[in-house]
Design goal:
Elements (H helix, E strand, L loop, with lengths): L1 H18 L7 E2 L6 E9 L8 E10 L3 E12 L2 E13 L4 E9 L6 E10 L5 E10 L1
Antiparallel strand pairs: 1-8, 2-3, 3-6, 4-5, 4-7, 7-8
The chain binds 2-acetamido-2-deoxy-beta-D-glucopyranose (2 copies).
One 2-acetamido-2-deoxy-beta-D-glucopyranose binds next to β4 and β5.
Protein name: Secreted protein
Organism: Stentor coeruleus
Keywords: Signal
Length: about 140
């Protein structure tokens, strides 16, 4: 009976995960992150070559921080191309940080790394680094 219940609940989680919550992608590349419960959603996933792609990065602040900018890096064949988006906004401890970034996915086939680095204002200290890989 218990195992049947377990199967049902796992099934329910899977079903809700598939329908409601998009897949969370990537992993941390931070030594000391000041943002926790990080989730990155990329739509569409898998990416469609040469098409509009939206990344939504969210997390909650572990302490008061003024976020200065987010650096977005894309690596292809060992070459990084970086973009900087200015934020300059104060976030109190526990507040949710949401960063939405849209770009056209590449057309050249191969493997890529995409990295988001959240930087503190003034000091440029690394508050969060989050990365994922994809193939075209
Ligand atoms: C963090 O920010 C909140 C809201 O601005 C403030 O009330 C609190 O004193 C701050 N805490 C610290 C440790 O600076
Ligand atoms: C960010 O830093 C700059 C330069 O240090 C400062 O002028 C600006 O007021 C800061 N922004 C916030 C929101 O604190």
């Amino acid at each position: 009976m218990k195992s049947l219940l377990l199967i049902f609940s796992i099934h329910a989680i899977l079903a809700s995960g598939l329908k409601v919550v998009p897949l969370a992608i990537g992993s941390s590349c931070s030594l000391f992150a000041d943002i926790s419960n990080v989730q990155l959603q990329v739509t569409p996933w898998p990416m469609v070559p040469g098409s509009p792609t939206t990344c939504t990065l969210t997390g909650s602040l572990s302490k008061n921080e003024t976020i200065g900018s987010v650096q977005i890096g894309q690596e292809y064949k060992s070459t990084w191309v970086n973009n900087l988006v200015t934020i300059n906004t104060f976030y109190a401890k526990g507040q949710t940080f949401t960063f939405i970034y849209s770009f056209n996915s590449p057309t050249q086939s191969g493997s890529y790394n995409e990295k988001f680095t959240v930087l503190q204002n003034s000091t440029n200290n690394n508050i969060l680094c989050w990365q994922f890989s994809f193939s075209i």
